[in-house]
Specification:
Radius of gyration: 24 Å
Number of helices: 11
Shape: globular
Strand content: 15-25%
Distance between the termini: 67 Å
Number of strands: 13
Oligomer: single chain
Length: 330
């Protein structure tokens, strides 16, 4: 049984014996604790040492820092990552669709080796010199520092990847957003790259596909980010005048200024199963209105029921569905 309360003289004894601060001594592992047991670990009955989380529960096993298991965000089921990836990151128990990166999404949808990325070198600036001083919370960094950190973590220059490819040998221009880059927020570079993808469709007279996943406009760019709503919408109007089809795929989540602009302007609007689709998220509504939002009122099924989108498609059927649409509209 784990005893979480610190022992008398714990700090002094830890310094003398080299015990890491915050280590958890146990009845079975008191000798290990005295001899310098690592912080955040507990011994098992077999004498092995396992990591524990914030709640004192063992963490999922890992191999050299590589996670082997992951918890479903919806049903809380523990699933092996290899099984999750085989199932396209869809929970085999509750059918919850996990988020994909932009390159994972591209690999899922287009013909192998057909994608050619464009405008990769566009980088966001800091036109407002956005910096809150003093910070409102501990990890609030200047915008330029946040951009650099997001670029380091994701390997992307911004929250969208654009280019051209083929699906079932049918060419198209596509833009795929990535939520892991600052919540997929739309800044000036995101708006510019999406506009260029639309213009490529006009130039080559090929259909355009935009895959949306975003928290909305990027607040650090203020009015510049809001102007992207008008710019992308105007480009789509020109695409319509050229009689080129535009397909919009909504994934979890699609909210804010993105859902209020190009995401909802498609000739055919598809959505993944269970995706959060709304303008204002349920948490903000609950905080402002002081009411509980009924479950299932801001997802793709609700949007389909009320005529806001055309089809809800399971992830495994997306490629075949898009190929069929391309054959019909080309």
């Amino acid at each position: 049984m784990v005893k979480e309360a610190s022992l008398p003289g714990h700090a002094q004894g830890g310094q003398q014996s080299g015990q890491a601060q915050g280590a958890v001594p146990t009845a079975l592992g008191s000798e290990q604790a005295r001899n310098g047991q690592a912080q955040g670990t507990v011994p098992t009955r077999e004498g092995n040492v396992v990591e524990v989380g914030d709640e004192g529960r063992p963490k999922p096993p890992s191999l050299d820092g590589l996670k082997l298991m992951e918890k479903c965000l919806k049903c809380k089921e523990i699933v092996y990552i290899r099984d999750l990836e085989k199932n396209l990151k869809v929970c085999p128990r509750c059918n919850h669709h996990g988020r994909l990166s932009a390159h994972e999404r591209i690999a899922l949808l287009v013909d192998q080796g057909s994608f050619v990325e464009q405008d990769k070198d566009l980088l966001s600036a800091d036109p407002l010199h956005f910096n809150i001083n003093p910070p409102a919370y501990a990890d609030q960094y200047p915008y330029t520092q946040k951009l650099a950190e997001a670029q380091r973590k994701t390997g992307l220059n911004d929250a969208v990847v654009v280019g051209h490819a083929t699906i079932d040998s049918k060419p198209l221009s596509l833009a795929v957003m990535d939520f892991s880059f600052m919540g997929g927020s739309m800044g000036s570079v995101v708006g510019e790259k999406i506009t260029r993808a639309i213009e490529l469709g006009i130039e080559r007279h090929i259909p355009v596909l935009i895959v949306s996943t975003s928290g909305g406009a990027r607040m650090q760019e203020g009015l510049y980010s809001l102007l992207q709503m008008a710019k992308t919408s105007a480009a789509l109007a020109k695409l319509g005048e050229a009689h080129v089809p535009y397909f919009s795929l909504l994934t979890d989540p699609t909210t804010g200024g993105v859902s209020a602009s190009f995401a909802m302007l498609g000739d055919v609007i598809l959505a993944e199963t269970g995706a959060l689709i709304c303008f204002t998220g349920p948490r903000v509504i609950e905080q402002f209105m002081h009411i509980k939002v009924p479950e299932g009122t801001v997802n793709s099924e609700f949007a389909l029921q009320h005529g806001m989108i055309d089809m809800v498609v399971h992830r495994r059927d997306l490629r075949a569905t898009l190929a069929r649409l391309l054959r019909l509209y080309s």
